[in-house]
Amino acid sequence: MSDMSASVTWLNNEAINFETVSGSGHKVIIDSAQELGARPMELILMGLGGCASYDVVSILKKSRQAINDVRCEVSARRADSVPAVFTDIHLHFIVAGENIKESQVAKAIELSADKYCSASKMLADGGVNITHDFEIVATA
């Protein structure tokens, strides 16, 4: 088992914003008003997109695809009632490179979703409907 940690510190009495520090020392500002930082639920989407993108890039590189850019656009729908949990999340991958095989991109996304991405697995197991699609942009 692998342990992780983080700390969250309220920044001031005038607003509801926090400085978070990961166990590895990286800082992120969380702000419900979005003036200083991202909202907490946005960070979940960012983490999911980052986790899935890491997998997709790693798998495509191992399969020797000549990628030069990968972007993941994440969109979500939340429940109307409190707690306003995510009900649906969609990840749209845009993969750019030379002679990229569609089958390799589809396989990389499937492996990420079903096997490697801890964030995706955790959210899906919690009842979130997660979907994926992709497009390939040819570059010279």
UniProtKB/TrEMBL annotation:
Gene3D superfamilies this protein is in?
3.30.300.20
A Pfam family annotated for this chain is OsmC
Identify the InterPro entries for this entry. KH_dom-like_a/b, OsmC/Ohr_fam, OsmC/Ohrsf
The protein in question is named OsmC-like protein
Q: What is the lineage of its organism?
A: Bacteria, Pseudomonadati, Pseudomonadota, Gammaproteobacteria, Moraxellales
Annotated gene: yhfA
